[in-house]
Amino acid sequence: MADNAIAASGTRTIPRYHRRRAIRHVVAQVLWQILLIAISAVMLIPFVWLLSTSLKVRGTEFTFPPVWIPRPAVWSNYTTALFKSGLPFPRFFLNTAIITLANMVGVLFAASLAGFGFARMRFPLRDKLFVLVLSTMLLPDIVTTIPSYLLFRLLHWIDTFLPLIVPTFLGGGAFNIFLFRQFFMGIPLELDDAARIDGAGTLQIYLQVILPVSRPVLISVSILTFLGNWNAFMGPLIYLNSFEKMTLAVGLRAFQGLRGSEWNQMMAASAVTMVPVLVVFFAAQRYFIQGIVTSGFGGR
Amino acid sequence: MGSQALVAAMRSARSRSTSAARRREAIEGFLCILPWCIGFIAFTAGPMIASLYLSLTNYEILRPISFIALGNFAKAGRDALFAKSLYNTAFYSFLYVPLHLATALATALILNVKTKGIGVYRTIFYVPSIMPAVANAFLWMWIFNPEYGLANAFLNIFGLPPQKWLFDEALAKPSFVIMGLWGLGSSMIIFLAGLQGVDINLYEAAAIDGANWWTKFWGITLPMITPIIFFNLTIGIINSFQVFTTAFIATGGGPNNATLFYVLYIYQQGFLFAKMGYASALAWVLFVIVLIITLIQFATAGRWVYYEVERKA
Q1: Strand, helix or coil for residue B67
Q2: Burial call B32-53: b when 16+ CB within 10 Å, e when fewer
Q3: Which DSSP letter does residue B161 get?
Q4: Residue B307 above 80 pLDDT?
Q5: Which pLDDT belongs to residue B17?
Q6: What is residue A290's predicted lDDT score, i.e. its pLDDT?
Q7: What is the rounded CA–CA span in Å between residue B225 and residue A171?
Q8: Are residues B15 and B144 in the same domain?
Q9: In terms of domains, do B11 and B146 share one?
Q10: What's this model's pTM, rounded to 2 decimal places?
């Protein structure tokens, strides 16, 4: 497919005598770059606008047409938003981190184990059960949300992290199971057989043979889980109601209630919740793209 | 003695013919998926049955529960907001999903070349799609601000009059579509993976036959990625029918219920007014609608989705 834009591929050697073709090639290359830059601008302008607004002195964000460069740039908006709003933002961060990390552990345990079972063990109904796993992806969450809420209420789990963590340890998400299964199926079965001859049991094969060679899928599932939980809203909204327990997403909504008309602080608070996502993405970007490609398709 | 054990181990490993070894493997296999099975019963199948039962009651948490058969569904039939929220959701979905797929595929095609800085461009196109939903909603509320927003500044460049966007009954849903399109990266990256999986030999053969870019796109690229289009379409519709957070934060359903999307309405009924019975009935209506749409998609897939035979292996 690399040559789809024969036009845009610069790596090809072009015969000297085809000068006109070479020129056309360069022109196409330049036009392609212009197109890429134009779309990048559309994608980036909202971020620039966010950053610009977040640095403006209170009240100066209300100008039309907008002023892009904040003068002066007040970084103190960030500390004001985080520490002087009356909301425990550090606590929100901590809560979000705890829930996110616990979910990552849960997914890596439950989804990889299920994926291992579906990919490398033989048992009755295996393929039918796998179809059932996949079909749960088609179920709108809201159908199970209401009875689940009632169940957790019965268990006195409301306003604790348990409803947001325990279910993950029991399943780990259909899509993650799918990703693990696809990856594990690509590992030669001879590895298992060799280990069995050496006297290894199934658990040892899972832990000492399969998992060590599965770094790409472990990392890409971790990132997907991180993103899903860091950004989750409806679950925390329903299950957490005291400030001490809230996550960033729900805390931000409370912040909106207090500072909804101070857009410089609203943007500063938004930017702060975006930063960890960007850091994780850039740190693990290579594995992320790789994981999506190896699985055929990636997360939502 | 030792060698006997080894032979036995080898036999069970290689042929796995002994019924004891098979039974053992089956048990261990079940153990692997046991956590999922428990979770499925406790948090999917169980709640679904409970939800179905609740949908036939007038359960409101603090009041005694009573069975009202199909009363909730009859009530939905008379409920103007039920119809409105369903219309809003369908409107949004049928506008958003095709636009989202088309722009995601177009950008994936644009990114599927070897040119300078392509990795950076891919990252830039992708990153908006992973932004936290609440922060995202704040940002776009500010962009769509009727007085000082960027959207109106953009219109202003072309001498167009300012709009009220999220505060305009007619423009509110299209505004959500624009907001959603900024996150096209999620589908784009999947398309891109699909495009890179297409066999290069096909293009080379077509090039020898003198095919141009357009012919190659219609004759090779598009047919080869139909499974990816199908996946993105199915997931895209299911997700767009569940749009919630951005509307909850940005408009709360307004103006005049123009962005009262279906799940938002269920949330209001269930968690604001504690009408758990009615909310469960509404949730089941959504489930049935999504199920029907999905089944239609799967039923018609055979006509346009291309599957390589070898993929089965």
Answers
A1: strand
A2: bbebbbebbebbbeebbebbbe
A3: P
A4: no
A5: 56
A6: 63
A7: 30
A8: no
A9: no
A10: 0.88
| B43 and B88 housed in the same domain | no
Query: Are residues B122 and B49 part of one domain?
Result: no
Pair (B49, B78) in one structural domain: no
- Give the residue from A272, A284, A219 showing the smallest Cα distance to A75: A272
Task: Check which CATH number belongs to the domain holding B298 and give it.
Answer: 1.10.3720.10
Tell which residue, A186, A248, A254, has the closest CA to residue A216. Answer: A186
**A136 within 8 A of A174, measured Cβ to Cβ:** yes
- Residue pLDDT, tens place only, A36-73: 999 999 999 999 999 999 998 888 888 888 888 888 88
Q: Name the residue range of residue B303's domain.
A: 74-312
Peptide bond into A65 cis (omega under 30): yes
B45 plus B117 within the same structural domain: no
DSSP H stretches of helix in A12-138: 19-54, 76-83, 89-120, 126-135
Residue A233: what pLDDT?
A: 95
| Chain A interface disruption, residue of B61, B126, B139, most A CBs within 10 A | B139
The answer to whether A276 faces chain B, any CB pair under 8 Å, is no
Q: Classify the phi-psi angles of A187: left when phi > 0, otherwise alpha if psi is within -120 to 50, otherwise beta.
A: beta
- B81 and B39 part of one domain: no
Please check whether residue B237 lies inside any domain of the structure: yes
Higher pLDDT, B210 or A299: B210
C-alpha count within 13 angstroms, C-beta hemisphere, residue B139: 29
In sequence order, the β-bridge partners of residue B192 are none
pLDDT of A13 reads 57
Measuring CA to CA, which residue among B109, B64, B288, B39 is closest to residue A35? B109
Q: Is B69 part of any domain?
A: no
Query: For residue B67, is it within any domain?
Result: no
- Minimum distance, in Å, between the CA of residue B190 and any CA atom of chain A: 5
CA distance B127 to A278: 8
Q: Which residue of A has its CA nearest to B38?
A: A170
Instruction: For residue A173, give Cα distances in angstroms to A109, A136, A204, A235.
Output: 11, 9, 24, 15
Q: Which of B6, B27, B32, B230 to mutate to test the interface with A (most CBs of A within 10 A)?
A: B32
Using pLDDT thresholds of 50, 70 and 90, give the confidence band for residue B13: low
What is the Cα–Cα distance from A252 to A269, expressed in whole angstroms? Answer: 7
ipTM of the complex: 0.86
Residue B200 placed within a domain? yes
- B243 in the same domain as B117: yes
Number of H helices, E strands in chain B: 17, 0
Min Cα distance B302 → chain A (Å) is 19
Count of the separate structural domains present in chain B: 2
Return the closest-CA partner of residue B227 out of B309, B136, B110, B106.
B309
